[in-house]
Amino acid sequence: MSRNIAPRHSVTLNENDRSLRNTVSGKLLFTKYKESPCALLIRDNRLRAVSFFSHRPSRIGAIYIGKVKKIVKNLDACFVEIADKELCFLPLKKASAPYLLNRTPNGRLLEGDELLVQVERDAQKTKQACITAEISLSNDYVVLSLGTPRLCFSSKLDKKQKDTIVHYLTKHKILSEDSLQLIQDVHPIGAIIRTRASELDEGALLESFRTLFADFCQLLHNADHRCCFSCIVAAPETWTTVFDSLAAPEEYQEIITDQAQLYPRILDYCSMHFPEKICRLYQEALSLSTLYSLDSRLQEAFSSRVWLKSGAYIIIQPTEALTVIDVNSGKNSIQKDAEETWSRINLEAAGEIALQLRLRNLSGIIIIDFINMSDSRHRQRLLEYMRELVKADRVKTTVVDITPLGLMEITRKKGTKPLHEQLGRIYHEAD
Length: 431
Hints:
431 residues, alpha+beta, Nucleotidyltransferase, domain 5, CATH 2.40.50.140, Ribosomal Protein S5, domain 2, six-stranded mixed sheet, 21 strands
């Protein structure tokens, strides 16, 4: 998709503007672009991620009592009605242990079953909203979810941190033989220990766990006494989801907005969840979108060609089925050792590709045609490097392998719309 963005007018920056724009540390910005509210992650003076808030509120995270209307065996899925004549798509693999409200579970779903479901993805074009029966609640430190009763950890926690947390939970009999014994007395529920749990001492961790568990019990109790199509938990305000979906807390030090009405809500939210962050209201004449040249940055995000510092470049071509990315040597001069040159270019390209996948919010199947390398050590190094890079992505991204043809296969979980679709709507509304 191509789109001409109006050229940026020259602007005069005052000293406060220059100081703010030139700061290297990460910043999370809340502003407006063409009257559409958005959030930006700026780090090392580069736009790393952007999210536009739809004027139509998102329902991602909302929990409903739905009714199974039709089971489609060849799709290994079913359609669930969450409101009058509003069907959602539920893969059966996400309903292995559903919380049923009208009968005793027997290991499989039946048409007419009433169950708890949670919205994972809003409806897009002709596709229904995608839901899951693996209901989850979270705080800053723990995620609890219906389904397989497993204890999992953030990949950013090291072995010592994991062992310490397991010791606390076992000591207080929350864990028993690596299963969540206390929780299973209610319903099969698993737990994910988040990165920030390592910041807590023993007492605070246990309190966080028990508080969230109590909230989960209350949720199930409320569901037991509500009728079909009830909304048990409303979706969070869209701007609050940014803190989980757009950036990790360690990626930014400041939260800045030029939206005076939003500022007190951000301040209250951060005082509860991120008290260590600096929150500021920007009140200069220039908007934050102008100050950070958002027009030109988004123009770059529309371009299929992305140049690298070495003179090489990558071509990004999204299609309906998958995204194809090609790495080219471009203006890069070949050194005596061609293999080393290709390896260096490929590693540089991998860093930029990881950034672009996140910035453009590309998802599904992604195929990357790196410059061919004959040395298996170089291919393995590239594979491991890419796997390390995608860990920073807030969307689950899996680097599968490099095929015999030298193509790297990546999958990135589908969630919100890709950037070009979000912008397409904004430009249409602005015209």
